[in-house]
Amino acid sequence: MANLTSMSGFLLMGFSDHRELQILHALLFLVTYLLALTGNLLIITVTSLDHHLQSPMYYFLKHLSLLDLCFISVTVPQSITNSLMNNGYISYVQCILQVFFFIALASSEVAILTVMSYDRYVSICRPLQYETIMNPCICRYAVTAVWLAGGLSGLMHTAVNFSIPLCGERVIHQFFCDVPQMLKLACSHEFINEIAVAAFTTSAAFICLVSIVLSYVHIFSTVLRIPSAEGRTKVFATCLPHLFVVTFFLSTAGFEFLQPPSDSQSAMDIMLSIFYTVIPPTLKPVIYSLRNEAIKAALKKVLSKGEFAQRKMYLKTIFKF
């Protein structure tokens, strides 16, 4: 710690200095990471292979799972490695890449959740125009815009954040290079540019949130007019998981990023970061699959022995050429 200021990197404090707790943290994170990988890979697989799941809703869900897969891979493997090696050091370049991909993927998630809410709005409130509005070309453009918007947001935050002069020991009281924690290292609170960029991205996130809320206001007002109880149940089963994911992700991330920087270290900051970095990518596949009969049927089909053998023969045929 004494010579950390002479290093170019940072020290991630993580959860504990006790070796037993570090091992426990690594094991818990490893199990969570494997669950997240398995769940999201299964959704990507079934939405790609099953011809019944080629609608815009499942196309966006596939990209959401891909984003979650990348999002949790940005922070958790590094944290597991640091805990197992009993070394919280992260190089300057690694920290830059972590900040860039973390902000880019988080921004892309907010954007695609907004697109998914609009897709549900058109499907339920304007069903006769659905195929025209949400045609494959528009869906591809929307997904491309989601990824580009995320990349631009990550680039702006990274460029501004790492242009701020840092003072003192480069100690980050988190398990990853978190922007709010890094702002505490700024010299004399010289982070006005980062505040400006954060205000811009927060405004964009607020616009997304308003769009999601308006979409669901229209959706629920339409659903309540459906005479069939079975029809209402089917719509709620599709929309409520998405609404829960949006609320959970935006509320925890917003609370963490909007609170003013403080010199005090709080365990609440680490707990909040887990709620928006680790838990959502792990729970989303469970939430979407358990509440969606089409995905459950596709999972059973893909995982069945006959289907698995058929896919295996198909892959062998491809590799022969």
From TrEMBL:
Keywords, comma-separated and alphabetical: Cell membrane, G-protein coupled receptor, Membrane, Olfaction, Receptor, Sensory transduction, Transducer, Transmembrane, Transmembrane helix
Domain G-protein coupled receptors family 1 profile span(s) in chain numbering: 39-288
Main location: membrane
Record Pfam families: 7tm_4
Membrane topology qualifier: Multi-pass membrane protein
Localization, UniProt: Cell membrane
Entry protein name: Olfactory receptor
Source organism, top-level taxon: Eukaryota
GO MF assignments: G protein-coupled receptor activity; odorant binding; olfactory receptor activity
Keyword Cytoplasm: no
PROSITE patterns assigned to the protein according to its UniProt record, in alphabetical order: G_PROTEIN_RECEP_F1_1 (PS00237), G_PROTEIN_RECEP_F1_2 (PS50262)
This protein's record includes keyword Cell membrane: yes
Transmembrane annotation, as ranges: 23-46, 58-76, 96-118, 138-156, 195-223, 235-258, 270-290
CDD domains for this protein: 7tmA_OR14-like
